[in-house]
């Protein structure tokens, strides 16, 4: 059974939102999505899924605090401790299993409430083997970048070009928090923090909320004459052990992409899409994920980047939203934001960053340090 | 299902793998046969690891596979099997593995300290409440509205701790316990006494769900089918509702019963495994599951209807009160018990009468969420 995205709600990304509580942020995103789909959640939405982690939220059982602001009280509602695409997949499966026709999927970041972000990430490391090593956990990003660059042949300069592309691209996205006129040379001159990872190679945290409304094929036709179809989705996890996982290739993306492309019937991913929103919490991750998702051949990625093939107007627009580098890093909501941006592009509602004739798009997510988990969602318009 | 105990020697990963291996062996499968993994665990703070579903993923066999952790507080024990059900029912997976784990003993000095962080930070937390305190309010309200005596509630603890004697994983089974023992145990927050409560515990449990095609292909001899699933959350504002009846559970039950084509649960359901972290909760949940009228569950218990050899056997496993309460891992005594009973593999716990249909539920969040599964042989 086909599943469509019929409502999109995004709040502006902001470095901090002192005037909002996380509840109000969720409410803001949800009301935007419900208005976009033109529905009343208390009448029309049958199930609600939130993607959240207790430690990000600062609660023991965050699931308790979900229903009221989403209009979900006295409804089937659950939390997925995962990335937005994992949550989206659960919502889609609820529809495909015949349980529901309309499901809302929510995720948000109130990262500005986190006083000790690096310590929380440290807390996700193996408590016996890795956590005692201490240090800002982004050192893992530095180590992985080093391993990836050596194996792929891409350079730190290429990563700086990703930073410049996404930060300048974000200037065209009215909801992005970190748009900037920035050249690759300037990005390359930023101080190394976790060498070779430089200050500007890392996306800055932001607050934002994202809600998507999913509908079965039958219902979707009632909401829209030309809905955005969720044609495939997948997710995967490599080893949680730092010592046992693949440090050069994003294995989790390979697993997720293979499943999503199989479902969508895609055999040549490098030619299938006009737009891709690809996880770029660190600059090198965009290149690594492009290759793991089969969107760019290993060895050609840097060349295509230099040629402008990943810019809006190139062969495959990569992160026209500005990505996490340009918009801000919103933790597990990042994946859902990427899906939302692809859906806006396919609807032709992306304003001055609109990708010309975008019919098919893909979103690639990663749950961030220290995980080896990510998802892939394939979207399309038309038959 | 692993032994439920204070298990200081095993890491969460190891507990997960112990249960996973047991389930794979029981189904004669290996991880290569599993298409997707679903896992459940209560607050991260118990194990003391952020994103603990990621941390123990390989213990659940989640290495290079799609694995998802779902979380609905205490309701997770019966909710993660529902999530695995939709993996199979949607066609995404042919065979799905569910692994639920809890390790509460790493919390020092007591797991209760984690519950200091489940409250609204402005409205509730300054009052410094704990779970025993609010459940005492709910129990009191339930007793007051229906004029139920403490002795009748204590009978539930006695029944379940005695039932648990036959359970190999049990932590707090007691063949000789009496109603007087419960009534004479230490008062924690009136009307809750020490023996009204299930013990915190460590453990893990695992289930394997398969599609109809896979069941045929694997020639499973005694499959037990999911015939209805339901779940529902009420408002966060627990102070705004009458605690005497779990209306969210009634709603979740109706969702599951509709799917299972059950219109008269009292007649069509042969036995039940309601969630029993406290003895009054079994009664509360029997009413929410629509297995009896409001306020009638205590009477059924007094009359022996809910004994293992009664007309409506309830918690034949020994439940959380007898087997232990490693929150999400209680899947083994809830959905797991439905499987063992309906497939005739419950051994000394086997219900003597003929059974076809069973129902179970779990309960969680701030006295606001329930998940329900109906299963048939």
Could you list some keywords that capture this structure?
heterodimer; A: 383 residues; alpha/beta; Peroxisomal Thiolase, Chain A, domain 1; 2 domains; two-stranded antiparallel sheet; 12 strands; B: 377 residues; 4-stranded mixed sheet
Order of helices and strands of chain B: HEHHEHEHHHEEEHEHHEHHHHEE
Number of strands of chain B: 10
Helical segment count of chain B: 14
Provide the CATH superfamily of the largest domain in chain A. Answer: Thiolase/Chalcone synthase
CATH class of the largest domain in chain A: Alpha Beta
Low-pLDDT runs of chain B: none
- By DSSP, the count of extended strands of chain A is 12
Listing every helix as H and every strand as E from the N terminus to the C terminus, the arrangement of chain A reads EHHEHHEHEHHHHEEEHEHHEHHEHHEE
Q: Which residues of chain A sit in consecutive blocks of at least 5 with pLDDT less than 50?
A: none
Structural class of chain A: alpha/beta
Q: Compute the average pLDDT of chain B.
A: 96
Mind describing the biggest β-sheet of chain A? Answer: 10 strands, mixed
Helical region count of chain A?
16
**Rg of chain B:** 19 Å
Alpha-beta classification of chain B: alpha/beta
Question: Which strand order does the major sheet of chain B show?
Answer: 2-1-3-6
| Overall form of chain B | globular
Explain briefly what this protein structure is.
Chain A is of the alpha/beta class and 383 residues long.
Structure description:
The complex is a heterodimer of chains A (383) and B (377). Chain A is an alpha/beta fold and 383 residues long. Chain A has 2 domains: 3-115 and 206-223, Peroxisomal Thiolase, Chain A, domain 1 (3-Layer(aba) Sandwich), CATH 3.40.47; 135-204 and 231-380, Peroxisomal Thiolase, Chain A, domain 1, CATH 3.40.47.10. Chain A has helices spanning 22-37, 41-44, 54-57, 67-70, 84-96, 117-122, 139-152, 156-169, 184-189, 217-223, 251-264, 269-272, 283-292, 301-307, 323-327, 333-347; strands at 3-10, 47-51, 77-80, 102-110, 192-194, 197-198, 207-216, 228-237, 275-278, 317-318, 360-364, 373-380. In chain A, strand 5 (192-194) and strand 6 form a beta hairpin. With 377 residues, chain B is of the alpha/beta class. Chain B is 33% helix and 16% strand. Chain B has helices spanning 12-27, 44-47, 52-55, 76-89, 131-146, 150-163, 179-184, 212-217, 247-259, 265-268, 279-288, 297-302, 319-323, 335-342; strands at 36-40, 67-71, 95-103, 187-189, 192-193, 202-210, 225-233, 271-273, 357-364, 369-376. In chain B, the strands form 3 sheets. A 4-stranded mixed sheet of chain B has the order 2-1-3-6, sandwiched between helices. Chain B has a 4-stranded mixed sheet with strand order 7-10-9-8, with helices on both faces. In chain B, strands 4-5 form a two-stranded antiparallel sheet. The chains are: A alpha/beta (383), B alpha/beta (377). Chains A and B meet through strand 3, helix 5, strand 8 and helix 11 of A and helix 3, strand 2, helix 4, strand 7 and helix 9 of B.
């Amino acid at each position: 059974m086909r599943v469509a995205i019929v409502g999109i709600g995004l709040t502006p990304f902001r470095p901090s939102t002192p005037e909002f509580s996380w509840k109000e942020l969720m409410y803001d995103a949800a009301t935007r999505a419900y208005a976009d789909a033109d529905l009343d959640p208390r009448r029309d939405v049958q199930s609600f899924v939130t993607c959240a982690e207790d430690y990000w939220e600062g609660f023991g059982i965050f699931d308790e605090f979900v229903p009221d602001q989403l209009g979900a009280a006295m409804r089937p509602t659950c939390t997925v401790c995962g990335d937005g695409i994992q949550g989206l997949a659960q919502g889609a499966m609820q529809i495909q299993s015949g349980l529901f026709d309309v499901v809302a999927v929510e995720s948000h970041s109130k990262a500005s409430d986190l006083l000790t972000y690096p310590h929380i990430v440290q807390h996700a490391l193996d408590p016996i083997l890795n956590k005692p090593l201490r240090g800002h956990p982004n050192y893992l990003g530095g180590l992985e970048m080093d391993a990836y660059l050596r194996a792929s042949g891409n350079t730190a300069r290429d990563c700086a070009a990703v930073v410049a592309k996404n930060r300048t691209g974000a200037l065209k996205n009215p909801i992005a928090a970190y748009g900037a006129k920035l050249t690759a040379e300037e990005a390359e001159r930023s101080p190394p923090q976790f060498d070779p990872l430089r200050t500007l190679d890392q996306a800055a945290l932001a607050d934002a909320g994202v809600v998507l409304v999913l509908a079965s094929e039958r219902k979707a036709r009632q909401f829209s004459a030309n809905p955005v179809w969720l044609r495939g989705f997948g997710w995967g996890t490599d080893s949680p052990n730092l010592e046992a996982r693949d440090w050069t290739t994003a294995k989790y993306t390979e697993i997720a992409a293979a499943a999503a492309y199989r479902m969508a019937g895609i055999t040549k991913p490098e030619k299938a899409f006009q737009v891709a929103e690809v996880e770029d919490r660190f600059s090198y991750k965009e290149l690594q994920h492009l290759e793991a998702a089969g969107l760019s051949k290993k060895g050609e990625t840097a060349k295509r980047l230099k040629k402008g093939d990943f810019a809006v107007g190139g062969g495959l627009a990569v992160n026209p939203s500005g990505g996490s580098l340009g918009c801000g890093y919103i933790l597990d909501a990042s994946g859902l934001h990427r899906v939302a941006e692809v859906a806006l592009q396919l609807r032709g509602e992306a304003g001055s960053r609109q990708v010309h004739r975008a019919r098919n798009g893909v979103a690639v997510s990663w749950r961030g340090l220290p995980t080896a988990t990510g998802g892939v969602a394939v979207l399309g318009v038309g038959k | 299902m692993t032994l439920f105990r204070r298990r200081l020697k095993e890491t969460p990963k190891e507990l997960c793998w112990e249960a996973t291996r047991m389930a794979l062996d029981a189904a004669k499968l290996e991880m290569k046969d599993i298409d997707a993994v679903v896992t459940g665990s209560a607050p991260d703070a118990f194990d003391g690891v952020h994103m603990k579903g990621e941390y123990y993923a390989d213990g659940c066999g989640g290495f290079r596979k799609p694995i998802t952790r779902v979380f609905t507080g205490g309701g997770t024990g019966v909710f993660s099997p529902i999530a695995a059900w939709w993996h199979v029912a949607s066609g995404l997976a042919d065979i799905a593995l569910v692994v639920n784990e809890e390790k509460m003993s790493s919390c020092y000095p007591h797991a209760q300290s984690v519950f200091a962080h489940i409250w609204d930070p402005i409205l509730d937390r300054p009052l410094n409440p704990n779970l025993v305190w609010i459940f005492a309010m709910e129990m009191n309200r339930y007793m007051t509205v229906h004029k139920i005596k403490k002795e009748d509630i204590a009978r539930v603890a006695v029944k379940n701790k005695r039932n648990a004697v036959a359970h190999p994983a049990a932590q707090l089974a007691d063949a000789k316990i009496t109603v007087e023992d419960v009534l004479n145990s230490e008062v924690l927050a009136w009307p809750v006494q020490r023996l009204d409560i299930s013990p915190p515990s460590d453990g893990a449990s695992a289930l394997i769900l398969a599609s109809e095609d896979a069941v045929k292909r694997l020639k499973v001899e005694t499959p037990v089918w999911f015939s209805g699933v339901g779940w529902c959350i009420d408002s966060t504002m627990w102070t705004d509702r009458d605690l005497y009846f779990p209306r969210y559970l009634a709603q979740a039950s109706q969702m599951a019963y509709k799917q299972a084509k059950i219109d008269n649960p009292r007649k069509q359901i042969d036995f039940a495994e309601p969630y029993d972290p406290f003895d009054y909760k079994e009664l509360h949940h029997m009413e929410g599951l629509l297995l009896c009228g409001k306020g009638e569950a205590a009477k059924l218990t007094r009359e022996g209807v809910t004994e293992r050899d009664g007309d409506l056997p309830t918690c034949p496993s020994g439940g959380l009160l007898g087997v232990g309460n490693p929150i999400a891992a209680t899947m083994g005594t809830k959905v797991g018990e439905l499987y063992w009973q309906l497939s005739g593999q419950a051994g000394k716990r086997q219900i003597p009468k003929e059974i076809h249909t069973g129902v179970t539920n779990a309960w969680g969040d701030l006295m606001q969420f329930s998940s329900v599964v109906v299963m048939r042989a």
